Amino acid sequence: MKKLFAVCVAGVLLSGCQTLDPYTGEQKVGNTTKGAGIGAIAGAVLGAAVSSDGDRDKGILTGAIVGGAVGGGIGYYMDQQEALLRQELQGTGVQVERIGDSIRLIMPGNITFATDSDRVASNFYPVLDSVAKVLIKFDKTELNVDGFTDSSGSFEYNQQLSERRAARVGDYLVGSGIAQLRINTRGYGERYPVADNKSSAGRSQNRRVEINISGTRR
Q1: Which of 116, 120, 141, 157 is least enclosed, having the fewest CB within 10 Å?
Q2: CATH of 91-214, one of 3.30.1330.60, 3.40.50.1470, 3.90.1150.10, 3.90.190.20
Q3: pTM, to two decimals
Q4: Angle formed by the axes of helices 2-15 and 56-89, to 10°?
């Protein structure tokens, strides 16, 4: 059991390895590293449980290796996609957020659509082209394109506008070569604000389109 303990310690140390985020300057633990560390520990425990006394050490080692590879796989895929998206979208005004094994692209309304319009702004086409280029390369993902508005106007109108805007972005991505089956579009209207609608700055933040990228398609 000493080797099991050693593997567990190694897994914890592995999951604690940090890298420097070049965009924020902060130290952070990579999702690949987290997944690999947790997978290694789980695999080691399972390997010990299913092995006979004479082969327990071998079972622990094999379980740790297999568990680490499986645990790090999804995280690694999304890590690579995130890095390329950040590279392509730097300076465009689009925010790239990492949430576990998902990536969220937040596209402010002031660079995506004109006020009260569902027509994609022509100067935003190159940004969507950059997004599409990455999504085509990393095709084992599903995309939720979500539209949001501020609280100006009626609830019903805002709901319809958010749906149309999400659909326009989705249509553009399909036209850029992304399979329709990968994309789901939704409108949330004035629900789920990220800022106070009482101020002009707050309303500007609430008018947005988000693309949520999930690494679940296999």
Answers
A1: 116
A2: 3.30.1330.60
A3: 0.70
A4: 0
